[in-house]
Design goal:
mainly alpha, rod-shaped
């Protein structure tokens, strides 16, 4: 087989793999955003937003 064709075939295979990885990571990112903004986590994020203001003492 022609070495140029073999290299082109390897490049196409690598392109599909990189494209698939991009789709998987994008789906994971969208899932993470959806999870963070879901209503079940609202109380957790509200509590976490007050942590920088808490000096450690009870008042």
């Amino acid at each position: 087989m022609n070495p140029l064709l073999r290299e082109a075939a390897a490049s196409v295979t690598q392109g599909w793999l990189l494209g698939l990885m991009t789709v998987v990571f994008m789906a994971a990112f969208i899932f993470l955003i959806w999870w963070a903004w879901s209503g079940r986590n609202q109380a957790r994020w509200e509590e976490a937003s007050h942590l920088p203001l808490n000096d450690g003492g009870e008042s």
